[in-house]
TrEMBL record:
One of its GO terms (molecular function) is DNA binding. It catalyses: biotin + L-lysyl-[protein] + ATP = N(6)-biotinyl-L-lysyl-[protein] + AMP + diphosphate + H(+). Gene3D superfamilies: 2.30.30.100, Bira Bifunctional Protein, Domain 2, Winged helix-like DNA-binding domain superfamily/Winged helix DNA-binding domain. GO terms for cellular component: cytoplasm. This is Bifunctional ligase/repressor BirA. It holds the Pfam family BPL_LplA_LipB.
């Protein structure tokens, strides 16, 4: 985003009350008339800015429409999303992120899209990403102390971060292994972790997250109507996408740092507490279908189940008929 405008928003966000035009012009090293022009630009983007003679300016409300400045308003992260690109429409934010990562985009760069015309999920499934209804974004991560074989743990780390963020709303969110966030037995969000690695070193990871937010039942794609849900459907309220992204990025950054510093152990515990159908009997499909009890998750991200003979199994890529 235009960096002066971002500085302007940051400055206003970090101040209680009004900031005078004079102070803004000194802090940002621009003229008073440039301050005025930037304010007008922000108003056009949908910011509600109060300007009072002899007092100054303050932001009252951010637009419920995404753009780079609104997405970064009040963003308190240290690095995740501090470099952020917003695109009205892309094929997939994953593709954009891979492209940027190959061109050395830094750790924490985030790409957000209004809509995706070719959004993709795991196993090359289509991910429906209609304009303005949800959050579709990809983050570039460059963990230097994680081995490629442990990269899948990042999906679990992100799932815990998202689930814990959603606890502030009146919803009972669960994590369905390996990459789904579930509300009342329906899918609310999905995570797609893609990695570029050499034999023993990760070059970068693209962590893609899609979350259905302001969809009504009618907005859900025909093929997922029975299986998917949105925050609006579950709570009856609509949400400001900027604020939800802000909260998600905060939580993901915090959990990621915990994971990098302390490893997966602590988070594994949290994951198990949030797991969908923990302790229940499920059907696992490998070469045949068999009954298993879900008992936890292994350190390396595999699902731990026990069969009817009491024998324990670790599942890496099995299909589960939940
Ligand atoms: C899944 O549930 O299979 C994962 C879905 C991941 C969807 C997100 S939306 C942002 C990013 N861009 C994509 O094309 N996919 C991910």
């Amino acid at each position: 985003m235009e960096s002066t405008r971002k500085q302007l928003i940051d400055f206003l966000s970090n101040h209680q009350g009004y900031v005078s035009g004079q102070e803004l012009s000194e802090q940002l090293n621009i003229s008073r008339s440039a301050v005025w022009k930037h304010m007008n630009h922000l108003k056009k983007e949908g910011y509600q800015i109060e300007g009072i003679t002899n007092k100054g300016y303050r932001i009252i409300e951010i637009p419920n429409q995404m753009n780079e400045s609104s997405l970064q308003w009040n963003l308190q992260t240290k690095w995740l999303g501090q470099s952020l690109i917003y695109k009205e429409s892309v094929r997939s934010t994953q593709l954009v992120a891979h492209d940027l990562a190959r061109k050395d985009a830094k750790q924490g760069s985030v790409i957000v899209a209004g809509e995706q015309t070719s959004g993709r999920g795991r196993m090359r499934r289509h991910w429906d990403s209609k304009a303005g209804l949800g959050l579709w974004f990809s983050s570039i991560l460059r963990p230097d102390n994680i081995e490629p074989k442990d990269a899948s743990q990042l999906t679990l780390v992100a799932a815990v971060a998202i689930a814990q963020y959603l606890e502030k709303f009146p919803v009972d969110v669960k994590i369905k292994w390996p990459n789904d966030l579930f509300l009342n037995g329906k899918k609310l969000a999905g995570i797609l972790t893609e990695m570029q690695a050499e034999q023993d070193a990760i070059q970068y990871i693209v962590l893609g997250i899609g979350m259905n937010i302001n969809h009504t039942q009618d907005d859900l794609h025909e093929t997922v109507k029975e299986k998917a849900t949105s925050l609006l459907i579950e709570t009856g309220e609509s949400f400001n996408l900027n604020e939800v992204l802000n909260g998600l990025l905060m939580n993901i950054e915090r959990k990621y740092e915990l994971f990098i510093e302390e490893g997966f152990h602590e988070i594994k515990h949290e994951w198990e507490q949030l797991a969908y159908k923990m302790g229940e009997w499920i059907i696992v499909k490998t070469h045949k279908e068999w009954q298993a009890q879900l008992i936890g998750i292994h350190e390396d991200g595999a699902l731990k189940v026990r069969d009817t003979d009491g024998q324990q199994h670790e599942l890496y890529s099995a299909e589960i008929l939940w």
